[in-house]
Specification:
The protein has about 110 residues and is mostly helical. It is built from three helices and no strands. The chain is flat.
């Protein structure tokens, strides 16, 4: 879900690009080329802050969010075990490669 701060950032960037496009099309000199992106970005920022403020004020957000620690720990343990197995396999592969490189070096001399 797009959070309020992400929403504000997204619309500010959208406003900047719309302002830049509008500035390129409408600008007669360098001053106007800088004015349009700045003005449109500020308008988009103010609108997005207003919409985000209204959303936060009118939505009923749960103040107490509880984490299901048992399910989290079970999933974490499963993933940690899988990572340990992969790490062991990687270590064995590296040792096997070093042995082959040693044998090749001994045969070359």
């Amino acid at each position: 879900m797009l959070g309020p701060s992400n929403y504000i950032s997204f619309l500010t960037v959208v406003g900047f690009f719309i302002g830049t496009s509008f500035g390129i099309v409408k600008a007669d000199d360098a001053g106007m080329l800088l004015f349009w992106p700045l003005a449109i970005t500020v308008v988009f920022y103010i609108l997005s802050v207003g919409v985000a403020s209204y959303f936060i004020g009118s939505s009923e957000v749960k103040k107490n969010v509880y984490l299901n620690t048992e399910a989290f720990e079970t999933k974490y343990d499963t993933l940690a075990h899988a990572i340990a197995i992969r790490e062991k396999e990687l270590q064995e592969t590296l040792e096997f490669r070093r042995e082959i490189e040693r044998e090749d070096a001994e045969e070359a001399h």
